[in-house]
Amino acid sequence: MIWLRQAATIARRELRGGLSGFRIFLACLALGVAAIAAVGSVRVSITDGLAREGRTILGGDVEVEFSYRRATDAERDWLDDLGTVSEAVDFRSMAATGQGRDADRALTQIKAVDDLYPLVGEVELDPAIPLDRALADGGAVVHPVLADRLGLAVGDALWMGTKRFTLRALLLREPDAGSAGFGLGPRTIVSLDALEGSGLIAEGSLFDGDYRILLPETPDDALDTLRARAEERFADDGMRWRDRRNASPNIARFVDRIGSFLVLVGLAGLAVGGVGVSAAVRAYLDRKTPVIAVLKTLGAEGRVIFAAYMMQVAAIAAVGIAIGLVIGTIIPIAIGPLIEARLPVPVALGVHPGPLAEAALYGALTALIFTLWPLARTEQVRAAALFRDAAGPSRVWPRRRHIVTLALAVVVLVGASAWLSGIPTLALWSAGGIVVALAALVVAAWGVRRLARWGARHVRGRPALRLALGAVGGPGGEATAVVLSLGLGLTVLAAVGQIDANMRAAIDRDLPAVAPSYFFIDIQPDQLPAFLDRVETDPAVSRVDTAPMLGGVIKSIGGRPASEIDHWVTRGDRRISFAGALPQGTRITAGEWWPEGYDGPPQISFAQEEAEEIGIDLGDEVVVNVLGRDIAATVTSFREVDFSSGGIGFVMVYDAAALSGAPHTWLSTVYAEEEAEAAILRDVAGDAPNITAIRVRDAIALVTEALSALAAATSWGAGATLLTGFVVLIGAAAAGERSRVFEAAVLKTLGATRRTVLTSFAIRSALLGAAAGVVAIAGGALAGWGIMRFVMEAPYAFEWVSATAIVLGGAVATLLAGLAFAWRPLAVRPARVLRAQD
């Protein structure tokens, strides 16, 4: 088409002048794209590493796991027919420096292995000796953290259960650590044969029998057939299957979720950058007003001019996106070793096209959304109006097709973020939050201008303040650009601060009030009387709760296979209990508890909230595999279970007749004064070494550490958004430098001192920053309340410290940006500036 060729010619000639005026445009777009590309690349690097090294992470091609038991001889023969099999038993216990009540003890995660372990990969020890040599004759290897905690050195003795082991080496690297999941204690490895006579594994003990299998050459697609055969063979045995394709599902799920969330934070940064992109395009078109007017006077059509400047913006946007993609590719490679050092899984560093394409798509859509409106003015406004527009912005609306295109671009951007993030609900809420925040910031900027205009008319005796208020409230001011650019970044940062402070406050507030001191598990039935005699007679103990406990794997709920129900209750094994009479403090919310002494068909009471989430109704049948036996029970009641209290809480409780005959142990929570905790642990573990004590404060410390890492990652994302906002802020200050030069010249001519002019500039900047901070506090508080209330399901309280820091930070940021561009206006001579206006 002729008009497109004309537009291309104009665009090419215009671009010969270089990128003057588009540096902020490039910086904003590049920063936003780089943040999204880097986060996406890190996420794909980890997930690809999990897929590529799945065999090493899993410890074989296949893992078959039995909860609370080892494979029978017939089951083991079937597994041996598949390939080379290595057996391990995994459980928690206490490691001690001796026997009796004077020994020091610490919780550890024990893995007892056979002579074939590991089938894949290598165990790294210090000193570097073979694992079989380290484990021979009652040897053990422990993680350095456990050795430091107990003051152990190589060659020292340590006790687990009733058996003495010798520390032969420190465990530096466990090849299959990534498949182990969350553990409350550092790792200890011993020989499987060494468990004999230790008293650690007994009927009802909580442990997993793991069987890693190294298959002959087997393609991935054949694993589905093999899995189907295994599930058919072990349908009634409570078997769980994993293979090399999904070696560490928990880590993969966590990385995917946090990565998706950070991409959404990156989109907020792109929205901030979009404000700078829009401002840069507006400023560029304002400078091009004479050129556009001449072109229209010479007969150029509106569509030609629109296309010409759209081509220029598209070319520069492509450059900005390319710069962002390069930076987003380099950053993960540079910090990859640091990430890999903090993860128990390998990271596949490299260039990943998927996240780069996603970042480029977001960047292109953002550039289109924020530049289409100002570009459309060039087509709609007449030449005469464009000449008049040099004195002020045009209020002309774009044509309908441009508004429709803008709306479609927004829909595509939101839809792409919802689809590609994998968390559509959060993505839609985030998009809505960004739109609401932008609208609120625009309204706030308007309110600041109106308030400043009113204040300028009423302030007396303070010329610097009056000049600042007049400049903020006057036409063509920078209030909107500053409040928008800085406000959205501060809003994200404020939300992170509110959430982090509330989570920490919730932990600090709830732990002393309601959490027990210890969870004691693996209490054998014959040990329960002596245990209760010790803790219930202690005056420092305020409360002791006990319940029988055993494990099971949910097979089906209401006729639906558990594998088809995506809920935490149906994943992995589940602790269950049984009771006769209604336990004290239990509140039935629906249905009826079975009568005391009930001996009919199995009944089950389900936790109400979890039942609602899964979709369970009274009368539904739940099938749970307990120690290889399927037990079908009817749901006859729902209970209120508060897992946040830290006390005993079971999703499922059976009637006593259904499970009391099955091998089980007892669980107990002990609420005691902190000063008495050490003595209780010493006495209980000294008398019964097989009992495992989990200190709740230590467990919560691990959760707090994980939450801190999550908050730190989110803070980095918010920091990138804030950096983009500061770049936009600098752009707005730079764009207003010419008007400030003229303003300073007029003020000096009228008798204002340099001090008065500088003070006026400083007050103006601080006011705008404070306004952005105040709006950010409101937005951050609202977002924090929503996350705490609906996602964390925890109480929310406004946190003043971070809120005050946000306001001060906003004021200081705008002050620094404003002062950086105030020296030239102060230095110019009024006569030279005013003569140039003739």
TrEMBL record:
What are the ABC3 transporter permease C-terminal domain coordinates in residue numbering? Answer: 265-377, 720-825
Positions the record marks as coiled coil are none
One Pfam family from the record: FtsX
According to its UniProt record, where is this protein located? Cell membrane
GO CC, alphabetical: plasma membrane
User: Where do the TM regions start and end?
Assistant: 21-42, 258-285, 306-339, 359-376, 403-420, 426-446, 467-496, 716-736, 757-788, 800-823
**Keyword set for this entry?**
Cell membrane, Lipoprotein, Membrane, Transmembrane, Transmembrane helix
In the bilayer, the protein is annotated as:
Multi-pass membrane protein
Q: What is its main location?
A: membrane
Which InterPro entries has this protein been placed in?
Answer: ABC3_permease_C, Membrane_comp_ABC_pdt
> Mind telling me what this protein is named?
Outer membrane-specific lipoprotein transporter subunit LolC
Native organism? Jannaschia rubra
Its organism's taxonomic lineage begins at: Bacteria, Pseudomonadati, Pseudomonadota, Alphaproteobacteria, Rhodobacterales
